[in-house]
Design goal:
The chain is mostly beta strands and 183 residues long. The protein has a single domain, classed as Beta Barrel (Porin). The protein has an eight-stranded antiparallel beta barrel. The longest helix is centred in the first third of the chain and has 17 residues. 26% of the residues are buried.
Length: 183
């Protein structure tokens, strides 16, 4: 799965950089609801984006790195999360300033957590591969500046368990607000 995502990301980046399309950079903020009742537990919320719009095709590549450190009386905890995704969408222009799009995001997320206590330490890591069917709309306030909203149903597959014959999956709804500048 890692190599599949790397290939998708490379194709998306080359499409973004070498096609005759609008190329943009942006930032996204996401809110997630998981199947286990948590809010925003599995996926970190913010990504830096590279985007392109060409005729009826829209692509995005997103990257997020999150470091969290906390200290308590009984010990310290630190975690690092990396999320990389590539998105492919069909784009339909409603008018000059409004577009609707639908497609899918393919992503890979890894997280490593270390804790140290007075009587020992603990380290754990997990990797997720995810697919997110997505529906969104993009509105251009001025010719090069847009704001978008997306909704998706993310399916995570993880390798949390040592048994090679077992893969767990989680469902999560994702609501995303994106701001982009095209040049």
């Amino acid at each position: 799965m890692k190599y599949f995502l790397i290939l998708i990301t490379a194709v998306t980046l080359s499409f973004n950089l070498f096609s005759n399309s609008e190329f943009g950079v942006g930032f996204s903020v996401e809110n997630n609801f998981t199947t286990n009742g948590g809010n925003g537990i599995i996926a970190p919320p913010n990504h830096v984006l590279l985007s392109s719009n060409s005729n009826n095709i829209k692509t995005d590549v997103g990257l997020m790195i999150l470091n969290v450190n906390s200290s308590k009386d009984d010990g310290d905890t630190s975690s690092t999360t990396l999320d990389l995704f590539a998105g492919f969408y069909y784009l339909s222009k409603v008018d000059k300033s409004l577009s609707i799009y639908y497609g899918a995001k393919f992503g890979l997320m890894g997280s490593k957590k270390s804790s140290s206590y007075k009587d020992g330490s603990n380290e754990s890591s997990i990797q997720f591969f995810y697919i997110t069917p997505t529906l969104g709309g993009e509105y251009f306030f001025v010719p090069n500046f847009s704001i978008s909203g997306e909704i998706g149903l993310r399916v995570y597959f993880d390798d949390r368990y040592d048994d090679e014959n077992y893969t767990s999956f989680h469902l999560m709804s994702a609501y995303t607000l994106l701001v982009k500048w095209y040049f």
